[in-house]
Amino acid sequence: MPNIALLPGDGIGPEVATAAIEVLNAVATDLTYDEHKVGGAGIDEYGVAMTDDTMAACKASDAVLLGAVGGPKWDTNETGAVRAEDALFGLRAGLGLYANLRPIRPLPALYDASPLKRELIENVDMLIVRELTGGLYYGERGTKDGRAYDTLVYTVEEIERIVRAGFRAAKSRVTSVDKANVLDTSRLWRDVATRIHAEEFPTIELEHELVDAAAMKLISAPRHFEVIVTENMFGDILSDEASMLTGSLGMLPTASLGGDGPSMFEPVHGSAPDITGQGIANPIGMILSGALLLRHGLGREAEAAAVESAVDKALDKGIRSRDLGGTATTAEVTKAVLEEL
Ligand SMILES: NC(=O)C1=CN([C@@H]2O[C@H](COP(=O)(O)OP(=O)(O)OC[C@H]3O[C@@H](n4cnc5c(N)ncnc54)[C@H](O)[C@@H]3O)[C@@H](O)[C@H]2O)C=CC1
Ligand SMILES: CC(C)CC(=O)C(=O)O
Ligand SMILES: [Mg+2]
């Protein structure tokens, strides 16, 4: 019986986690869930964003499912203070999850929900492969005497493994996104990507794109992209931007892979404090994260595909939460998906 470490977190995290569990229970009755408080909920209960016991439970689980963490209650500018987001960084690094897959597939039923013209988003099928355990978010940082700094470091090995993950996920083209006209880390990134391409994946096209131009092309020519492989912060920003091809940030799931133990699954979005407690969060990114858990975490392709197909059908029939221009509540969207299973 696979055991899932369930970390609902903060804000809309618990609201969308409830939805995902209902859907998972409909396709996989043998899963068990151990719930733990992390993020702001962890700070309130234990004084830390994630306890050692929770980390140990995650490591011992078969997969980790996380809602979202953070929110104004726990925001602080105090140097060295505990932050709700520390739970994420601890989990990603602690589980060795360096490869974050963010698939972006606008559904025909939602072409009208995107601010982009239908002609631009038709048949987009893109994967952002974001490096998740290095770069600016993990570098040394500090604030002193009116000066603040963050450091951006990448090693050859860190770049090699994420670039390989990008090529393995691609059929024909990888776009490596960097800022090699400015940053040394990006120049190293580009050199390593070029070498790995030549040595290991010569039949796949590799192109290099500067991040500012890539951000523009995501909007002007999104169909051009198949796999984008990029560093931690660029991938974070580009994927929120790309979410609008699907109509809403609330649509996107992610899989964080690459460790020796369990993988982690969470939506792209955060805790959405502006809509917390209203029952209106779009649960689809979280439900689809459950599908990715079934596929990548437990090797259950048929069940994963069943969940994805149920989501497609529910949207085809017209269910829309508010972020997609509709009026359906979180519970109503979840019910519509369940009815298709
Ligand atoms: N993986 C995680 O746990 C993440 C946590 N955060 C944290 O979340 C907090 C809020 O961050 P924000 O910048 O506001 O980003 P956010 O992603 O929480 O929200 C951005 C906007 O998108 C909307 N939105 C997000 N998810 C939605 C959903 N499922 N349905 C409908 N609308 C949705 C929100 O209402 C908001 O207007 C911060 O503390 C941040 O650090 C942010 C991103 C990821
Ligand atoms: C705390 C942030 C780095 C979380 C986030 O925005 C993400 O992982 O996408
Ligand atoms: Mg983000």
Automatic annotation (TrEMBL):
Q: Where is the Isopropylmalate dehydrogenase-like domain?
A: 3-337
Residues annotated to bind NAD(+)? 270-282
Give the protein's cofactors.
Mg(2+); Mn(2+)
Q: Which domain of life is it from?
A: Bacteria
Q: How is the cofactor bound?
A: Binds 1 Mg(2+) or Mn(2+) ion per subunit.
Q: Name one GO cellular component term.
A: cytosol
- Please explain the role this protein plays, according to its UniProt record: Catalyzes the oxidation of 3-carboxy-2-hydroxy-4-methylpentanoate (3-isopropylmalate) to 3-carboxy-4-methyl-2-oxopentanoate. The product decarboxylates to 4-methyl-2 oxopentanoate.
Name listed for the protein in its UniProt record: 3-isopropylmalate dehydrogenase
The species is Solirubrobacter pauli
